[in-house]
Structures
1.
Amino acid sequence: MNIITALNNETINEELKKQKEINIVSRDIPYREGILEILEKQQNVQAIIIYEGIYGQIKIEKLIQQIKNKNSKIIILIILNKKENLKEKYLIENKIKYLYLENLTAQKIIDTIFSRNKIIAVIGNEGSGKTVTTAILGEYLSKNKKVLIVEDNIKNNSLLNIYKKNIKKEELIIQIKNNLFIFSIKNLVENHKKNQTKIINEIKKIKDTFNYILIDTQNIGSLKLYNEIINENLLIINPNILEINKIKNINLSNKNIKIILNYYNENAISEDIIKNLFKNNATILEKLEYSKSYNLMINHNFNINYLDAKIKRKIINIIKKI
């Protein structure tokens, strides 16, 4: 891939030059107008990385538009100085990738440019701990990656309530932390079945902006809505016979099935029984016992530092496998 850089960061630029997947076609450009000048000379450019802080008379929004006018298929990655809701909204609406300057690395840039993202449907019955587990995974993944959690519940915003956040009716995405965002389906549609295409198209439009998208499905029945776009299913199961009976007839298509046994204890149903349900086409990632530290975490604005050490180790193990 041929790339133009305007990073004003010699260290990262040198690291990018070592990557076999890309070819930087010119020296690092120190000013905005210089990007347009290079584009006139270099016709076969697939991506441009721009630090918003580089000098230039032209506004960043106008620069983006002029680049798109020259080549509508070009990938543009903007490096932002800091969080700015209006600027981020503009970038997302115009399908522009972005990262933050803080903790920026060459690997993050490569992963973002090549859209190395994964869409995971987190599914489970009511009371399985699905939403809390999704949020915990989102917290851990967002330490190094950009994560979007899709809150599929159109009746209420459970995740936003956990974080004590409010979202305006006209907003779809709210930032929780530096790399963690929540997408509220409730603000997009009033009915899943009648608006299936609208939901899928909206996720497709923004998916390249994130490394991971976790869909906290409303229930097992809504899973089929997302089959078109997901890479794998993450099934949260309470390992008892009643819960097993509820899930044994669900259709997970041919997607990769990974399982977390939640609220696990010595009386839990056999792992072999669970695997047989899916004809051994499933992997049990981890067994999570109930911990009082869950309540501590939730009561302290979902601060994962309150999780006990054993749960933390198991969550990290899950992260390595998804």
Note: The chain is about 35% helix and 20% strand.
2.
Amino acid sequence: MKPAKKHVLLAVAALAIVALGFGGFSLIKAQQERAEYAKFRPLPTGPVGDGIEAIRDDFVNMYVLRDGNHLALIDAGVSAESVGRELRQANIDPAAVEHIFLTHAHYDHIGALVLFKNARIHIARPELAKLGDKEKAGFPVAPTPFDDGEHLQLGNSTIQALIVPGHTPGSTAYLFNGKTLFTGDTLALENDHVTPFNERFNLDTALQRESLSKLARLQGITRIATAHYGTSTDYSTAFKGWAP
């Protein structure tokens, strides 16, 4: 075999090995992510108590908050099509939503923002600072940033924004009227006990643990509402062992 031809064949073989290796790695990564998604246990669309409704979009929950005729959402799901369908089932008009409070800007929490033409979108300042062009393209209007501890309003109701980094730089938990804590992807619930969220999807799980200790110091909470792991009405038991 001529040396030039031999070199070409060796190069082709090397490329094939690299391609097979990359393909195998991608397959393993996809399988691992599917295993993590299989752990999620979102609630079905419907009331969860305290006048709050869950909206299920595939593997994630968003939530509807009410104060009289005023409507707000915690997060905005994966898909405009499926969220629209679930909202119709719950007799909720997207045009009536006044505010959307984002726990963070991953695709499964901002996917249906385009449905809500009249809503102001709220997001933590550190999260907004890290948004890429792809995420920004999903926002129908420029979002309104807030800082840690800021109090936001829905009619006569108060929503306190608590920035709890770890899953993302500006992950946020929202405390509704001092009673219901919406945690997004800041935690998981396992047998009604708080654990860090799936580490595979976290930016910094060690930092998230510090954020969980911050939440454990809250008082008077009657309900935890997560994005992927349902709810709990026993705050003290759920956060047992997390307070510093």
Note: Residues 41-238 form a domain with the Metallo-beta-lactamase; Chain A fold (CATH 3.60.15.10).
3.
Amino acid sequence: MTETKIGKLLKELTLFFGIDEEKVLEKLEKELFHLDSYVAECWNNANPISASEIEEFYKKTDAYIYNLSVWNATYARRKWTDVIIDKLEEKKCIKVLDFGAGIGDDCIKLYNRGFRVDYCDLKGLTSDFALWRFSRQGCADDIKMCHDLNELPVHYYDAIICIDVLEHIADPLIILEHFSKSLKPKGCLLLTESFSCVNDDYPSHLRQNIKYAGKIHRIAAKYGLLCLSKTLEEKPLYFVKADKNIDFFLKLNTFIFNNYIELFKKGFGVLSRNLICY
């Protein structure tokens, strides 16, 4: 990251927190030198165990403001955003939900590209920072803030994006169920997850979710969200909500991805994507 970008981050964070620049720089440098290290430090100090304790941690911590400020500025993360925007424009999406939107970077970028974007995340310090940024960007009145899954509209969104969120959630299946309900038929989901990344560097990635590693395509299919990515290594993965003959599509999707290495060699991947009737 260039000195100019670091200086911009430092200025923005100092202005928001209203504290000495040196104190902000101390925390920012932890993430700059070793991404996720300040998050791990705060998590280990708080040691949240129960679901309510974990939720309270996310509401109060400043760790993700520093962490996401750095991570979202990296080339790899910006590349994901480019892929997301390209896909949304290709599919002519208009109404988009950013779930687990954090500090609101993607919301701002999507808004600036003409999408009608809603923000969804826990109400707390991180979402306060996002709203503060929206106000500074002049889009606070246009980006709807949602802090409760149950408030999401049904069959409303053309697309949902969910980037590195599910590994932090005690029951990610509930989230997928809500995604399926909130998406329009043929709506798309762009998702990344790190279920397999469970170690001391990432203590906020819940160990109980490692059972979902490598299985997101099968799990999502149970909720009518069909993975159309060529491989599970793509980031973000691309899912479409089926709109008819759903039982057939679910069986076909499960069969293809259970055998995707051999099937894609034989060209079945192209066939399966065409069957969605886009």
Note: The chain has two domains: 3-71, 75-274.
